[in-house]
Amino acid sequence: MSQAASIHGAVEPAESPLTPESWGKLGMWIFLAGDAVGFGTLLAGYGAMRATSADWPSPYDVLGINLTALMTFLLICSSVTMVKALEWLGKGDKIRAQTFLFYTALGGAIFVSLQAYEWTHLIHRGLHINGNPWGASLFGTSFFLVTGFHGLHVTGGVIYLLSILRVVAKRREPAASYNAVEIAGLYWHFVDLVWIMVFTFMYLL
After folding, report:
1. How far apart are CA 30 and CA 20, in angstroms?
2. Residue 141 belongs to domain spanning
3. Residue 8, in any domain of the structure
């Protein structure tokens, strides 16, 4: 404390341990925590409906897993490219970082396209949000609600990644974009992890 502050009885304000970069990460972690509760509630509701239904169809027989296994593989690969983008940015190579960010966004876009194809195929077979020719109508409701909610997150993530790609391209110094890419990576890895849970609970079990 300085002498002037001591004379007037004032207390010097303590410096915040959180930098602007830290605030950004904290904000993303808080958002992801709330989002995890939302997905957890949806999956818990799905489990409760399935456990109490007498005519719940076998997801494996109705949905199949060949296409969704490919979709899962794509998202896992996109997490790897996200890691590589951050790695190259940390090494100061903007070009390779942008390339891997683009691959990540491309993987997400393909995932959403395949999901749209899956939905179209199932709707043609008779599965609707309020109907199901193989048993309980809530099967269709829960399927479209959970996968649709996740699909919106992937779509938002693709838009987010493309905006971050633009930020990296505009900023001259790679280090200036590192924190933004790292925060985007937190979101993308979360979306990938949630899909693995959705795939396990709604397609495999």
Report:
1. 15
2. 21-204
3. no
The larger pLDDT score, comparing residue 6 to residue 57, is at 57
| CATH number of the domain bearing residue 93 | 1.20.120.80
Q: Is residue 64 part of a domain?
A: yes
Residue 53 domain-assigned (yes or no) = yes
Total domains, the chain = 1
pTM: 0.84
For 10, other C-beta atoms within 10 Å of its C-beta total 11
Query: What is the C-alpha to C-alpha distance for residues 111 and 22, in angstroms, rounded to an integer?
Result: 31
